[in-house]
Amino acid sequence: MTVTKNSILLKLLITFFMTLTLITGCVSNDDNDNPSPPGNGIQTPDDTSEEQPSQSDDSKKILLDTIMNLAKEGKVINISFTLKTNVIEDVEKEWGEPETSDWIPEAKGTYSTYPSKGIGFGWNKGSQLFEIRSFDSEIKKIPLSEVKNIFGTPDYDVKVNGEEIIGYVVNEEFKILLVFPEPTTSSPDPLMDHYSVFYPRGTVNQMANDPGREW
Hints:
Elements: H1 5-33, H2 45-48, H3 52-71, H4 88-95, E1 100-104, E2 109-114, E3 119-123, E4 129-134, H5 144-151, E5 156-160, E6 163-169, E7 175-181, E8 194-198
Helix pairs in contact: 3-5
């Protein structure tokens, strides 16, 4: 049989396409056997989920450290007024008249409140500030256990009127009181409601032979 140029060309083309098909199939199988890792090494939310609690704990510790450091100066967070050195007139000059102002016998002074600022002031008959209460929204994410973990065993710890109040001696002049809803079975680790920095000497009334408050 005579082989023509056309038949030879046809056989070469068939061989070429068969070889190309085999090569393509091998490459495809190799890709399936060794798939690329998803995300190209970029960290996904699942990768960082375990880190979130520690970051949250760090921010709470920083806030509590700030609260304690300011308490050593007779201050609360986010305002400039200072116990012992400021009088209620200083507050009224800057903030205006308080929304309420009431004499509280058991607290040994008058309490003026500024709800829009989340602040209350206790002051004595000489107008001296002896207590500043803060209801700042930042503190309302801090659980009772975190405070005890950072500050240690409280120097003062009472449960009264549905609240647990814990206190710490800050230095020779100031104390700090932190107020929480009383723990329950359904809420064993409640979040802080408010806290106060307190200057006990500011509640002493020597003329009335009143030793003042300790807490």
